Amino acid sequence: MEKYGTEFKLQVVNSFLEGEGGAKLLARRWNVPEEKIRTWVSRYRLHGIDGLRPKRSAYSSEFKLQVLSHQNRERLSSRRVAAIYDIRNPNQVVVWNEQVGFPRQCFEERHVTLVCRFQRVLVTWRGVVRPPHAQQDSAF
After folding, report:
1. Which phi and psi angles does 3 have, rounded to 5°?
2. Which candidate, 43, 46, 48, 118, places its Cα nearest to that of 88?
3. Among 1, 108, 111, 126, whose CB has the most other CB atoms within 10 angstroms?
4. What are phi and psi of 22, to 5 degrees?
């Protein structure tokens, strides 16, 4: 069950965008956590009213790899890349990184074959990752 309705979120976002106060002041006025207001405003700016509506999605392996590739190519935070792709839980991007098994520092721009642990399929992707063991080997 959704705690805050779409119309309520829109009222709060409009208050913010119309300059009625910053996130901190509006959080007190509307009795909403400050971070929620910032999140709603960000989603609204990127995706309009759809960014405030409830969303339940299943993501394909290709989509997940696209998100991870974009995140690491552009050096984006999980929160920022989640906002760009309208992924409501930024921690989901962190989980995907862990599922693939490659920490952020292992990403580099080159063509490699990646064994995708999302659905145990072999996926060829441009600019995705270098396996951690290859990074360790180059240190010697």
Report:
1. -75, -40
2. 43
3. 108
4. -80, 180
